Amino acid sequence: MHFAYGMFFASLNHLVPRRFFLPGMVTISGMSLAVELLRYRKGYEWLNKLMYTILGKALRKNEMDGKFTGSFYYFSGVTLTSYLFPNPCATLGICQLAVADPTASYFGRATRHVYWSRIGNGFFGLGRNKGILGFLGGAVCCVPLNYRLLSLALARSSANVAAQTIAKPTVLAISLALGMAGAFADLIVPTPALTLPKTVCGVNVPPFHLDDNIVVPILSGWACVHIFRLAGFPIPPAELSLAKYLVV
């Protein structure tokens, strides 16, 4: 589900004009936030029951016990990434969310018994209970998709002569760097997540928390812009045109 949603929104961000995509995502994010704020209020318990009926076992225990669900952060992460970065970089950032987040979690759980891989308390809480092997697994899993997308983009670039000067090892290195950025963003989000206190200066605040669904695409999109520059791309990121159907 995580991968399918990520590729779906990455494709929409790529295909749908920005003037339509962003307002649509803002609306979806706003509606998701409204549901999260209402579902625990008296008289709106039916929202919580409806959500459980629709999503069922996809919901985690803490998402049924008061914390916002990952879907709100997913929508918000896609929206902010699309707003902040050039279209190709935003699309690639969302792709890292689709791949790096679930694969890093998978490899992290699969290697949780490898003691030297575990980070423990992390750095001021960041990275708490995450694993180095999970980070590496997530980064490597992003490489095939990144390499395919970048290879197609360069092949169909209007600057064909310049594009042909970019060696395959360079494209591979960029693909790995993008994957590492996405996996690193997932790595620094602690488990359990950092959550705002229930009250700030005597005022009740919603249970917002630091979520990888919003950190991964934003950090990946930002990294994509700078990786392109460091790699000496002859094409500005804003003008790097991905294939019409991304992987085809």
Question: Nutshell version of this structure?
Answer:
By secondary structure, this protein is mainly α.
Task: List the SSEs and their pairings.
Elements: H1 2-15, H2 18-38, H3 45-55, H4 61-64, H5 70-84, H6 87-110, H7 132-155, H8 160-164, H9 168-188, E1 199-200, E2 203-204, H10 212-230
Antiparallel strand pairs: 1-2
Helix pairs in contact: 1-6, 2-5, 5-6, 5-10, 6-7, 6-9, 6-10, 7-9, 9-10
Question: What features would you highlight for this structure?
Answer:
single chain; 248 residues; mainly alpha; two-stranded antiparallel ribbon; 64% helix; 2% strand
Largest sheet features: 2 strands, antiparallel
Strand content: under 5%
Gyration radius, in Å: 19 Å
- Count of discrete domains: 1
The shape is globular
In terms of structural class, how would the helical and strand content be classed?
A: mainly alpha
The mean pLDDT is 86
Separate helix tally: 10
> What order do the SSEs take from the amino end to the carboxyl end, as H and E?
HHHHHHHHHEEH
- Gap between N and C termini, in Å? 21 Å
Give the spatial strand order of the biggest sheet. Answer: 1-2
Number of E-type strands: 2
Portion of residues within helices: 55-70%
Query: What's the oligomerization state?
Result: single chain
- Flag low-confidence runs: none
